[in-house]
Amino acid sequence: MEVNTSIVTETPPGPAGKNHYSKHHYSESHTHNHDHGHSPSNTILTIIISFISIMVLLVVFFIIFVLRRLKFAKKNGTWKDSSSLKNTSSRFIAPNTSNFNSSPDVKDGCLYGGNLSRTPQAPKFRGVQVFTYKELEVATDQFSEKNVIGNGGFGVVYRGVMSDGTVAAIKRLRREGKQGERAFRIEVDLLSRLQSPYLVDLLGYCADQHHRLLIFELMPNGNLQHHLQSSHDQTSPLDWWTRLRIALDCARALEFLHEQAILPVIHRDFKCTNVLLDQNFRAKVSDFGLAKMGSEKINGQISTRVLGTTGYLAPEYVSTGKLTTKSDVYSYGVVLLELLTGRVPVDSRLPPGEHVLVSWALPMLTNREKVVEMVDPVLQGQYSKKELIQIAAIAAMCVQAEADYRPLMTDVVQSLIPLVKNPSSISSSGSLRFQNHAASPSY
Ligand SMILES: Nc1ncnc2c1ncn2[C@@H]1O[C@H](COP(=O)(O)OP(=O)(O)O)[C@@H](O)[C@H]1O
Ligand SMILES: [Mg+2]
């Protein structure tokens, strides 16, 4: 099990059993000494009394043992207490998810919202529809190549037109392995419960004997990486202010996951390809296939296999497997650096010393003279030095090696708000996209 519940689920029967044994033993020997030299009828009476006392003691210890277990389980929110939402979530996240053909949730070819819908405390699923595979075939023109809009680790994403005319992004998951099934369940589970304008909307899903598909709102401008890395003949480069606003949208998404969801959620794969852009270049975070629900009661820390994407992984997560919300903060810092520099997290084509973005950028981020040298050349003339120094300071805080010193996402949001609200005069004059969207009352 990946969630670090070893202390939670494995309450050792040892100590209680040991006490029990030693006390039992003490009672017996005590009784024995006391009986020495008495008449036979007295001896029988004493044996009966001793036997009854032992039985009473046994019952008392058993009750104490059961009560202690219950208290411990409740305190740590284990999956055993089926009445709590938290527990249902943990169970859903467990890696031993059933395979495609044996899922207990699949009925008549459809998956009915997992176990959550049966949990009284679980919030109701909002408008997430169940589609048949046939409907999705029609929507995507038989999953035609011409409708492919993305290709990720877990499957291919198609543009589709649903029967009511809604244009959607349809992700068809590859069937191999448990990880794909787990990713599917987590995306359905989380996205049908979490409502935030900064997370991509799940419209529906399909789960029959042979297929797993997810239907999302279509984000017409695709992923952020495409806009930062494509040659600028294909896409016009994102301007400074748009980048700041994307940074703030993403910070709000992670703030929501870490601090405003019922249980803290760690995204675990926050990166530029999982940041999607709408028609106004507003960002939403997507791809929750690797997400984890954490419990602050285990210090907000989860032990897990190291999964995610090279270049975005926090050093302590790589070395120990201990996952916290601060791992996402590190990944966020890397994305912020990509927005600032236009570089990718790891690029072996660059000269030695520049391969790893964080190592290359870190010394410059806190150097007021050098910081200008690391900025994406296409942004020249669009920012004030004051703004740049502030953004660089945020990035430096997020990617520092010591997880405890990284800020909370709330702090990042609060630091970015004034920069997005009051862009410098330089950026307003130098930015076409800024002028286009200046009127939208976003903040
Ligand atoms: N809702 C969407 N709108 C537009 N493009 C999308 C959408 N969802 C995914 N994509 C595209 O597909 C790519 C892969 O999707 P993603 O959900 O990240 O899959 P994976 O889990 O396989 O990584 C994204 O990087 C993006 O380019
Ligand atoms: Mg992805």
UniProtKB/TrEMBL annotation:
UniProt GO molecular function: ATP binding; protein serine/threonine kinase activity
Keyword terms of this UniProt record: ATP-binding, Kinase, Membrane, Nucleotide-binding, Serine/threonine-protein kinase, Transferase, Transmembrane, Transmembrane helix
Amino acids binding ATP: 171
InterPro entries: Kinase-like_dom_sf, Prot_kinase_dom, Protein_kinase_ATP_BS, Ser-Thr/Tyr_kinase_cat_dom, Ser/Thr_kinase_AS
Signal peptide: none
Superkingdom, natural source: Eukaryota
Record flagged with keyword Cell cycle: no
Stretches the record annotates as Disordered: 1-38
Family that this chain belongs to: Belongs to the protein kinase superfamily.
Identification of the protein by name: Protein kinase
Species in which this protein is naturally found: Quillaja saponaria
